[in-house]
What we know:
- By secondary structure, the chain is α+β, with helices and mostly antiparallel strands.
- It has 26 helices and 26 strands.
- The two termini are 49 Å apart.
Amino acid sequence: MGRCLHKNCKWIPGLAGLPNAGISVTTTSHNDRPQYGASKPKAADDFSASFAQVPVGNLTEVEAATELSRLAALLTGANTAYHRDDAPELSDAEYDAFKSRNMAIEAAFPKLKRADSPTEQVGGAVAEGFGKVQHVVRMLSLGNAFDDADVSDFDARIRRYLGMETNAPLVYTAEPKIDGLSLSLRYENGALVQAATRGDGAVGENVTANACTIADIPQQIDGAPEVLEVRGEVYMSHADFSALNERQAASGGKQFANPRNAAAGSLRQLDAEITRSRPLKFFAYAWGDLSAPLAETQSGAIKQLAAFGFSTNDLTVTCDGPQALIAHYHMIEERRATLGYDIDGVVCKVDNLELQRRLGFRTTTPRWAIAHKFPAELAWTTLDAIDIQVGRTGALSPVARLSPVTVGGVVVSNATLHNEDYIAGLGGDGQPIRDGRDVRVGDWVQIYRAGDVIPKIKDVDLARRPDNAVPFVFPDVCPECQSAAIREDGDAVRRCTGGIICPAQAVEKLKHFVSRAAFDIEGLGAKQVEQFYQDGWIATPADIFTLHDRFGSGVQQLKNREGWGEKSASNLFDAIDEKRDIPLNRLIFSLGIRHVGDSSASLLANHYGSWVAFETAMTQAEVGTGAEWDALISIDGVGAVMAASVITTMQQEAERASIDRLVAGLRVQDVAAVTSDSPVAGKTVVFTGTLERMTRAEAKARAEGLGAKVSGSVSAKTDILVAGPGAGSKATKAAALGVETMDEDAWLALIGDA
Length: 754
Ligand code: IVH
């Protein structure tokens, strides 16, 4: 292993002797990679096809809410597929892109941030079969940097937060981001007592027996603190991965898509003897619960872990600022192919642990660290066909079917084409994209996946265009039900007008109905709904609630269907019954009304309070006029487009009949008042003047963490003004409005931080 020659990078002694040094590199072929598109959720295509190409700054609030809702569903599904099922549906770069997009929209529309926001989630749900382990210290994720400028911003953000000058010394560590799965090892009095996967960050799986089979993991440590939780990455080297897949092929076993899946699949074996036969390795890079500090710095702690006998990565260095971090990143990037194991970026961390403590955490990521990811790749391939998919609201989404090509380590065979303008070479703003070049079946197209929504077609090679290639004619009838597909003024998307007679819309509506943020019925997912629809067992959501009556006994019974049995059928009937009690917001969201995502559904539910109040108002309302209309659009977050969509849907005869049939079988729960333990939860707080014991950013983050809303200005809605020395007009205004005012010490006492 070589060394970084950058003058500002210092090698951390004690880290030499990389366990994989000398391992030969085996490049993986296309077939070793997951087939992007084979298992990719259709929602990803649907999603990419609508707003995804609109710059965040151009989104309306309604579009942003809709997009956040779809991103939540998409990313939650992808998390479960990746973390729990070891079967990724999205490539890493694509996942990052969707996540970045979600974060950018949340930053632009903070009040639309959802309770189930993907930025609040780490990892996926715990699989059945392993015991559960509650992590004493949560296992978190890392924020991403996609380019050098993001790293400089990371440094600037930290300095701002800590109130440090731009040129004050600030040391970081930089180390490879290992592409495996994280593991937390708990030692008590030096003995390994528990090993747990990350799970959802709070609760992981108990894999102690399996971890004990990994040679890199010491089972006994000399001189360790009484309690020591070591965290790091379980991974498989390229050489071991290839050999494992060869052995699997010879024995007719499962082929692993990549080393990370092989590592995850091998660690999460209920039979630890299988894990023992798999060549897993472990790098230590962090810690959780500790009875005594390991060191004063990150680099010191890593040295200590190495002294305890853990493998630590010998490409770990300290850097004295963002330029050195960037230089080290580029050095590692150059060596990436020769390391012998997969890495997907470089992790930068503040070295001083007291500063790490002060910087603290956002909901799921530390402020003191960032993952500087390697860029997405580009690849050329041919466009073999353009298919049109029909979504829940009738949107016709064109999907590019490609000759499979590897992009960033994943075989891509589909890409979004968004809409007809995009195919024709026009962006969402009506301006040319690809210099106005259109895309035709038969074209050579360049695919990319980057820190944006993807994969997309970046370019078309006109020189290689076949002579017989013709411009794509976008259909004006729905390919599923042959109803007219029309494009309304101002809508980039063409939509099927078939409503519930369109089978594609009906199935997508049903899938939406059973999705996680809607009815979330255990045992009734997209696959089951699709099969039941195809067999004529359910056509609308109301039919789900009569399944038991129709197929619980008699000639055709659920328990006799392929893939079902006595137990699973009775479990499903129970799960359906359980959901007859449904909160109003979920019910409104589940109806799949265009422009109503789940945060908008909550706004409507909170405003009307009960189903009766909501449906009465919507029945009486007239689009654009009258008291009901005024009340509807007076809800903060509900605009005219959404309001019109809700009224039209609730008054559309067939649709309404189907909704009424559904509600007749339910017990809808009215909206209850929100309660919370924190003394400042739900309060609006304003900070003014000089804060002496924390920076403004720290104060804001802490208050928000306790459920308060932090505002920049005093108004009648302000509950508390925290005024430091030098408070001026805000304090005067607060006094005039009778707003409770306190100093910093009183505030800290109130929130229990004194
Ligand atoms: S530090 C508080 N360092 O990346 C954050 N993580 O995307 C602690 N990972 O869950 C994580 N190499 O599984 C850290 N050198 C490294 C890493 C690393 C890989 C993984 C880890 C983490 C994920 C976050």
